[in-house]
Design brief:
With 304 residues, the protein is of the alpha+beta class. The chain contains 8 helices and 14 strands. It binds fe (ii) ion (FE2). Residues 161, 163, 251 line the site of fe (ii) ion (FE2).
């Protein structure tokens, strides 16, 4: 299937209207199985010995157990690091299950550092074609790649948010690419969206590095009327499906209480300068060894 057939004008209109779009079977079974295999290998290979046991949460609670604003997180933009499920720890502070079933997500430079993930991201002509056809960015940069594991029984909920809060540019330009690597259902934490909310709900705050260290939220404007629970539409999908997510659309996912994992690979694109400004307050910063990855100038040659 050519990407022209994938991203028909009707689908582009649907994305503009709803703020999200499912593209069924974007990844082949072979690609999905390759990413699943690599994800499991990376989970097995990482060492607990020197790990700070950082939990991942998007909550705003000032709970010591839920802090994300430590060095391990803030310096992970050009590495592959591992963040635990909040409920993977017992009262003694130790993991209460095998590490492979304890990690919430790994990131945030899979797209640069791991050949399997690089192949479906920066070296993927179909993806470049989609980015061109969607015409969301003039010069898209790829960042914050991660695998979200959403572990059985304990996979943490992600409370309602829009992605430009966490990846803020001026003007806002985040666009999420989210690939289901397994079937996503109401039971294992499929995503829910408020269709059209990218057009009606502004970005009211941004996630920033705080001057005193760590991270927090900076209020940009008055709080806005948030959607009600009934406004959310559950989007179930199959392994290989791609979800495009507008940076302003409200979305969330519930806790995974099922006995099945819900592996997904995701990254974001933002607009590059001079079309949009990315400032030093953002948690994720380009480094001298790894500037942001320009999609259109990235070589599709796997040997490069
Ligand atoms: Fe999100």
């Amino acid at each position: 299937m050519s990407s022209y057939e994938i991203l028909t004008p009707g689908r582009v209109e649907q994305f503009k209207r709803d703020g999200y779009l499912v593209i069924p079977k974007f990844l082949s079974d072979e690609q999905v199985n390759g990413l699943l295999k690599r994800s499991k290998e990376l989970l097995q290979e990482f060492d607990l010995e020197d790990h700070p046991m950082t939990r991942f949460t998007t909550g705003e609670e000032n709970d010591e157990k839920k802090h994300v604003g430590d060095d391990y997180f803030l310096t992970s933009g050009d590495k592959i690091r591992f963040f635990f499920e909040v409920d993977a720890f017992g009262p003694d502070g130790k993991l209460n299950r095998p590490k492979g079933l304890s990690v919430n997500k790994m990131g945030h430079a899979l797209h640069e550092l791991d050949p399997a993930f690089r192949a479906v991201t920066l070296q993927n002509d179909q993806l470049k074609k989609i980015a061109r056809d969607l015409n969301f960015h003039k010069d898209p940069a790829v960042l914050q790649s991660m695998v979200i594991f959403k572990q059985p029984s304990i996979g943490g909920e992600v409370s309602e948010h829009n992605d430009s809060t966490f990846l803020y540019s001026d003007p806002p330009s985040a666009l999420g690419f989210w690939f289901a690597l397994e079937k996503c259902t109401a039971e294992n934490g499929a995503l829910g969206f408020v269709p059209g909310s990218h057009l009606t709900i502004p970005i009211t705050k941004r996630f920033v590095r705080l001057p005193k260290g760590g991270t927090g939220f900076e209020q940009l404007r008055d709080l806005y009327q948030l959607p009600s629970k009934g406004d959310y539409k559950l989007v179930t999908c199959d392994a290989g499906d791609l979800l495009l997510i507008h940076g302003s659309v409200m979305h969330k996912s519930e806790k995974n209480l099922s006995l099945k994992t819900r592996y997904a690979y995701t990254f974001h694109m933002i607009e590059s300068a001079p079309h949009a400004k990315w400032d030093e307050k953002n948690w994720l910063q380009p480094t001298s060894s790894m500037p942001f990855s320009k999609l259109f100038s990235a070589s599709s040659d796997a040997s490069s």
